[in-house]
Amino acid sequence: MSRRNKIALGLIILLGVVIFGYSLRDVKLNILIRDFTTIHQGWLLTAVLCMLVYFALEGLVVKIFVDERIGQYSFKSALRIPLIEQLFNGITPFSSGGQPAQLIAMLQSGIDGGRASSILLMKFIVYQAMIVVNFLIALVIGFHYMVSKMSYLSLFVVFGFLIHFAVIIGLFMVMFWPQFTKKALRVVLSPVGWFGHQERKVDMIVRLDTKVDLFYEESVQLIGQWRLLLKVILITFVQLMSYYLVPYFIMLSLGYTQANIVMITCLHVLIVMVISIFPIPGGSGGAEYAFTILFGSYITNSSKLVLAMLLWRILTYYLGIFAGMIALTVKPDKLKNNRPTHSKLNQD
């Protein structure tokens, strides 16, 4: 990690401590400790297992793509990719650092940069598509509950959805209408010529056109491998379900056995959508607030509500950060049986 990233990590941990401390301001410590000691360990371990499955399945997706398109990739190296992504997503605004960090991690295994970029883009497309699908389902089931509890929060949910939906539309445009995408990019880049050198604008257009062509080529190959695509879609769906189920098992561990698994899961989907639009890394502050508001009707005990929020935040956010720190120290295995490719990505 660079010095800048270490500083960001330290600030995020400090911010988390401050938020946790503020959340505990009205809770007696002895009551919180009592609630924690009486927790059902089996259900809490199930919540932990859900997060481990979430990480493992994303690593499996990476391995499947690399094995299919390049060569044999060890699961240890493949698992390292999403863990590093969790770390850098967690310490950068809008989770912007995850993609570059994954690319660097794959380069360390000896994977060509163009091929690695292609695989990460394919993984990203499937992941974003599954997020949108899950959100639409959650919107139908849980949105009315969110509006009744906090109408202004619903605006953030819709805005978050529009951002994810726009990303998917943009990627699909590149996949199916590359020529139209190139024309749209020229329109978007028009202001560059007004305020900068014309040569810079032309250079950007050439680079983007090349990337659009290469991405289109790779996406056509992926769509042609429909069995591989279907396998990755199913794995990603299960992966996200494992993540979305974490609050439900935390509630069971606190004794709320009558919790509605469908509603709790849908509310978590909506909370995740809210978190995604906060510029602060991890949506710190907004995530904790949204959780306590939406789950306050289910967890009426204030001490247990705060404890549920703390456990949820530790498992779904800080666990990934610390796992990513460990992953950085692990030396990846080199790619074996590297296959030739017909893609032009390695020419980029």
TrEMBL record:
InterPro entries: L-PG_synthase/AglD. It catalyses: L-lysyl-tRNA(Lys) + a 1,2-diacyl-sn-glycero-3-phospho-(1'-sn-glycerol) = a 1,2-diacyl-sn-glycero-3-phospho-1'-(3'-O-L-lysyl)-sn-glycerol + tRNA(Lys). It is a multi-pass membrane protein. One of its GO terms (cellular component) is plasma membrane. Its main location: membrane. The keyword tRNA processing does not apply. Pfam families: LPG_synthase_TM (PF03706). The chain crosses the membrane at residues 7-24, 44-66, 124-146, 152-177, 228-250, 256-277, 314-330. It comes from the Bacteria. Its EC number is 2.3.2.3. NCBIfam families: flippase-like domain. Catalyzes the transfer of a lysyl group from L-lysyl-tRNA(Lys) to membrane-bound phosphatidylglycerol (PG), which produces lysylphosphatidylglycerol (LPG), a major component of the bacterial membrane with a positive net charge. LPG synthesis contributes to bacterial virulence as it is involved in the resistance mechanism against cationic antimicrobial peptides (CAMP) produces by the host's immune system (defensins, cathelicidins) and by the competing microorganisms. This is Phosphatidylglycerol lysyltransferase. It comes from Secundilactobacillus odoratitofui DSM 19909 = JCM 15043. The lineage of its organism: Bacteria, Bacillati, Bacillota, Bacilli, Lactobacillales. The gene is mprF.
